[in-house]
Amino acid sequence: MLKIQNLNLIYDDKNHVLKNINFSVEDGEILGIIGLSGAGKTSLLRTLNLLQSPTSGEIFLNHVDITQLNTNQLRNVRKKISIVFQHFNLLSSRTVFKNVSLPLEIEKAPKKEIEVRVNKLLEEVNLLHKKDSYPSQLSGGEKQRTAIARALINNPDIILFDEPTSSLDPSTTQRILDLILEINKSMKKSILIVTHEMDVIKKICDKVVYLKNGTVDFFGKVHEFFIVKENELNKEFYQEINVDWKRVKEVVKGENDRLIKVVFWGEKTHEPILHNITKKYDITLNILYGKIEHLKDNPYGTLIVEVISTQKEMEKFLEELSANVYKVEVLK
């Protein structure tokens, strides 16, 4: 397990890049770290294996504060925390095989062991046929898979990814995300991914850290992140919802009518819950907006609905609906 407590990073005694960072990563989890440019994402990633020493705070790996270790102890710890850099950082003068084998060569592992381990790993990432190729002969996806194989060669407990899909086309991005998921499941590795792409968070992450101006603005499960931060994310990252709220609220005119937001999560997202409950009451619904998002393990959905009824029927309807969905919010 990796646990971060009260982590601070200050450059030149005045640039406070990271401010009291707190979060944890359980064994086998995939954690996404997301934020706008300048939020401190890459700086945070570099502190986690002490490529950048924090100004203050604690970084616990399996209950050991690695910020207190000496150079020799830290060298051993870094074998347990590998990093895949944004621009791959492959050595142009070495083949795929030689790039992946480099950590083992530094450790002076026997040649036969190096050959067996590297070939096995290249086969697992579907690169064995490229073992004698140089980086200049590889596609972006092949370079990324080579970098991933190199990060895995020392059998780390945790792998850090810095924007692993930022320079890849959509098809290659999906293959890389599938590979990361496979590594997580088959090898039981904990994974931290710095990204600015919401699709990466949605497709493969269990939890998310949302950095904002160097602070943790949110830490928790992915579906909770998208539900709690929906309006902010639509404004800051993408215009997925283009709702004219002034006009929407003007639709609701009756004294007892309501404008509600209904959030579904998990298996109930695809069930006719709203329809079944509505049939029990003297209710008229006008659906103004709806969407379903498919996350790593479960879908979640959002509906914006005008509800037309009497006050008594409205109260009973909202009470039963709230008991059967993830969340009901009365907007007007």
Can you put this structure into words, describing what you see?
With 332 residues, this protein is of the alpha/beta class. It folds into two domains: 2-236, Rossmann fold, CATH 3.40.50; 245-330, ACT domain (Alpha-Beta Plaits, 2-Layer Sandwich). The chain is built from twelve helices and 14 strands. The chain has helices at 41-48, 71-78, 96-106, 111-124, 140-152, 170-187, 198-204, 222-228, 230-236, 245-251, 273-278, 311-324, and strands at 2-11, 15-25, 30-34, 56-61, 64-65, 81-84, 158-162, 190-195, 207-212, 215-221, 258-265, 284-294, 299-308, 327-330. Strands 6-7-8-3-9-10 form a six-stranded mixed β-sheet, with helices on both faces. A hairpin with a 3-residue loop joins strand 1 and strand 2 (15-25). The protein starts with a strand and ends with a strand.
